[in-house]
Amino acid sequence: MLDKNGIARRIARELKDGYYVNLGIGIPTLVANYIPAGINVVLQSENGLLGMGPFPLEGEEDPDLINAGKQTITTLPGSAIFDSALSFGMIRSQKIDLTILGAMEVSEHGDIANWKIPGKMVKGMGGAMDLVASAKNIIVAMQHVNKAGESKLLPKCSLPLTGVNCIKKVVTELAVLDILPEGGFQLIERAPGVSVDYIKQATAGRLITLEDVPEMQFN
Could you tell me the pTM of the whole model? Predict the structure, then answer.
């Protein structure tokens, strides 16, 4: 199985030269550390930043430079800082090429729940609903199962939805899965050492498997 950094490394392979990319809170923020050599992308944070770099080294943190998850970050040459109104204008006008979000649940129809667990205190929905309503392409970075071992890839989300029929791809510690237009998780890659049968057992939603599912590649 992959750890969180492994999930981020695999998602980084989805980046294309020239992309403007929004990184959501949680695992997605780690993608900034694994941008492939020779790929030039501009990372956007909805609190008002274009040109986000990797996390700072210990002792080099600047408390005035944070991402949407309030983690300290770095900026790159040519970066721009602005207010959140302009940032959300970029998102709502579909200027972002790829959005990478965390999730608590994803359904086989591409629905996502990532903002609220009923009965638990939340600070607010943040920018997730704007992102899922406006993004051209969304990849979810998440754990395949919860702490109780129950699948988080479901026929139907049980938690309040953030967006409907909007997720294209999911990357977990076990697998890379495309969500088909007609519904269903298509298994396209498996984590090193993880069997197809294990992924089937961990997936509650409809899973479609190819005859030969390759292991993930990171180079």
Answer: 0.92
Q: What's CA 105's distance to the chain center, in Å?
A: 12
- Cβ atoms of 42 and 16 closer than 8 Å: no
Nearest to 107 by CA among 210, 9, 203: 203
Burial class (CB in 10 A: 0-12, 13-18, 19+), 108: buried
Catalytic residue among 14, 46, 189, 215: 46
Model confidence pLDDT, tens digit, residues 169-180: 999 999 999 999
Q: Give the three-state DSSP class for 174.
A: coil
Give the largest Cα separation in the chain, rounded: 51
Pairing of strands 153-154, 105-107: parallel
d(CA 153, CA 217): 22
Q: Is 112 helix (H, G, I), strand (E, B) or coil?
A: strand
Examine the residue annotation and report whether 58 is marked as an active-site residue of this protein.
Answer: no
Residue 22 in contact with residue 91, Cβ under 8 Å?
yes
Strand partners, 42: 20
- 41-96 confidence digits (pLDDT tens): 999 998 899 999 888 999 999 999 998 888 999 999 999 999 989 999 999 999 99
